[in-house]
Design brief:
Elements lengths: L11 E3 L5 H8 L7 H10 L8 E6 L2 E7 L2 E5 L3 H11 L8 E5 H15 L4 E11 L15 E2 L5 H16 L9 H12 L3 E6 L2 E12 L2 E9 L9 H15 L3 E7 L3 H10 L2 E10 L1
Parallel strand pairs: 4-5, 10-11
Antiparallel strand pairs: 1-2, 2-3, 3-4, 5-12, 6-11, 6-12, 7-8, 8-9, 9-10
Helix pairs in contact: 1-2, 3-4, 5-6, 7-8
């Protein structure tokens, strides 16, 4: 069913520095589901005058929508989605995807599509998987060769990160200069949020803690070198990522994965992840 933008943006405003606490409180209603937006709020401090966070406050409801390269609704009812869409529609030039809880993401997309045009792809069933228990306590083997990447390994990690992005999204993460992309990868390494296994000077496994906030970490960028696939590397390596995260970073580990990626889903379940929600992603 085609859904229209709300009749106005009543109750919607751009959030700023003074709104950080109230925005994080909304995210904290479901830290696992909302870890991406919570992490962006903490990183940015909401400094600036053009978003990228909109808040909706009306009729006793409080919802959010992060609106940068990724557009992500938080705790939004259909009424809130309608109001937020009136602001988000103006940000087409910056958006490359919409994702979040399936009902919210697809409702928002149904209102934006008439204005933004057809999506490249809509992934309507992405499993949100979560763990709070160390895999070692479940009897899962741990690959102790998986460790945080070092700063001097940036030139090894960037090709692995770019390969993973291209496989997952369908186009490379940068065109022309790689400077901005290298800085983003370096930032994760500097925080200790990229874990790798390196063999003979080459990354054979990589995973990032892409978002860390409110006691949860969202794993992204999981990649196994093509030459090492089918050799039993993935599950022990992912177990090592979870073990490290729970011991050194935060007590809850989560990720989301396409339902059609059957090998990945099987690997995560083998490690001990259980489904706690469903996301959808619209690639623009």
């Amino acid at each position: 069913m085609l859904r229209t933008l709300g009749s106005g943006a009543g109750g919607v405003r751009a959030y700023g520095l003074q709104d950080v606490r109230r925005a994080l409180d909304v995210c904290a209603q479901d830290p696992v589901t909302n870890v991406f937006v919570a992490a962006r709020i903490q990183e940015s401090g909401l400094v600036g005058t053009r978003g990228p966070l909109f808040g909706y406050e009306a009729a006793g409801e409080h919802a959010l929508c992060w609106c940068a390269a990724n557009v992500v609704p938080v705790a939004a009812s259909p009424r809130a989605i309608g109001a937020l869409a009136g602001k988000v529609v103006k940000r087409r030039s910056t958006a490359s995807s919409i994702f979040g809880p399936v009902d919210q993401a697809l409702d928002l997309w149904s209102r934006l599509e008439p204005h933004w045009g057809e999506a490249r792809e809509v992934r309507e069933n992405q499993l949100v998987l979560t763990m709070q228990q160390r895999p070692s306590t479940l009897g899962m083997p741990i690959d102790h060769r998986v460790r945080p990447a070092r700063a001097d390994e940036l030139d090894l990690v960037v090709p692995a990160a770019a390969a993973m992005f291209t496989e997952e999204i369908g186009y490379p993460p940068y065109r022309g200069s790689s400077g901005a992309y290298r800085r983003a990868v370096a930032g994760l390494i500097e925080q200790g949020h990229t874990l790798v296994r390196v063999e003979d000077g080459e990354v054979v496994f990589k995973a990032d803690l892409g978002s860390v906030a409110l006691g949860a970490a969202q794993v992204q960028g999981v990649w196994v070198h093509p030459d090492w696939r089918g050799r039993g590397l993935a599950a022990p390596a992912m177990a090592a990522v979870v073990e490290h995260t729970i011991e050194h970073v935060v007590p809850v580990v989560t990720l989301y994965v396409n339902d059609f990626n059957v090998p990945a889903v099987a690997t995560y379940r083998r490690v001990g992840f259980v489904q706690t929600g469903t996301f959808a992603t619209v690639l623009l």
